[in-house]
């Protein structure tokens, strides 16, 4: 049985309220031996911590999502810092910029993003980056805040190879999810083919962005196996090799022994 690492999932999402245990069991049956659950606001950080404490194979990344940055209050950053002392918290994220959803002003997003990069550097934690339609500002702020000191993950990467190279130079891994399996995903496939194998990760972002042939339906962590199939096809490696490569990379990135 291959061993897969879903480096980005939201198992605490309401979409799983009726069958969460079964979803986790299906992932395990599909060979998913490690998962990073993402807590990204006041509601999901506690539920992410609960999952990480309940299951030994689920780890936590916690942070403040850019879409929710306008709701971040004084004391929330300190709360995140306190929780980062928990041994199952392996990263700060997902953090970053989102210029698609008009919920948080750009200046607020920038401030919250910078504050969390600084916290990550203080604690020596990698960061998980959410980037939607904000490539130039993401790279600029990562540079200005010396994010290369901790590195991390460009989650569900959708940018160009030129931007990917800049992120690789700053000590980041490039992670691919369901969209890379889509038949019309020309650019993501081209970028994937160029990413060094030792900087490659896979994920689901479940319950969102389900891979082909489940596009448009609820995603779940077991489907990371389908992402691995596409990665193997594009890189010319076997699925077993991709499982080993991406699991090894994920453990290294998140400091999981």
Automatic annotation (TrEMBL):
Classification via Pfam families: TatD_DNase
Tagged with keyword Hydrolase: yes
UniProt entry tagged with the keyword Metal-binding: yes
Keywords, sorted A to Z: Hydrolase, Metal-binding
InterPro entries per record: DNase_TatD-rel_CS, Metal_Hydrolase, TatD-like, TatD/YcfH-like
Domain of life: Bacteria
Any one GO molecular-function label of the UniProt entry: hydrolase activity
Classification via NCBIfam families: YchF/TatD family DNA exonuclease
Record-given protein name: Hydrolase TatD
Organism of derivation: Paenibacillus glycanilyticus
């Amino acid at each position: 049985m291959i061993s897969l690492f879903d480096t980005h999932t939201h198992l605490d999402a309401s979409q799983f309220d009726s069958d969460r245990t079964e979803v986790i069991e299906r992932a395990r049956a599909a060979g998913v031996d490690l998962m990073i659950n993402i807590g990204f606001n006041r509601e999901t950080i506690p539920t992410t911590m609960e999952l990480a404490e309940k299951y030994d194979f689920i780890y936590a990344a916690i942070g403040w999502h850019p879409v929710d940055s306008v709701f971040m209050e004084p004391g929330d950053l300190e709360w995140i810092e306190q929780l980062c002392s928990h041994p199952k918290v392996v990263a700060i994220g997902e953090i970053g910029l989102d210029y698609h959803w008009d919920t948080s002003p750009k200046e607020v997003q920038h401030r919250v993003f910078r504050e969390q990069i600084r916290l990550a550097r203080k604690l020596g934690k990698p960061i998980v980056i959410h980037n939607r339609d904000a490539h130039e500002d993401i790279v600029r702020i990562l540079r200005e805040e010396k994010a290369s000191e901790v590195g991390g993950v460009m989650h569900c990467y959708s940018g160009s190879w030129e931007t990917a190279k800049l992120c690789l130079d700053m000590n980041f891994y490039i992670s691919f999810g369901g969209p890379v399996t889509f038949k019309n995903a020309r650019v993501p496939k081209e970028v994937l083919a160029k990413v060094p194998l030792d900087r490659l990760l896979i994920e689901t972002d479940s319950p969102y962005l389900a891979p082909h042939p489940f596009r448009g339906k609820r995603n779940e962590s077991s489907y990371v196996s389908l992402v691995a199939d596409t990665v193997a096809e594009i890189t010319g490696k076997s699925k077993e090799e991709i499982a080993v490569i991406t699991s090894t990379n994920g453990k290294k990135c998140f400091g999981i022994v």
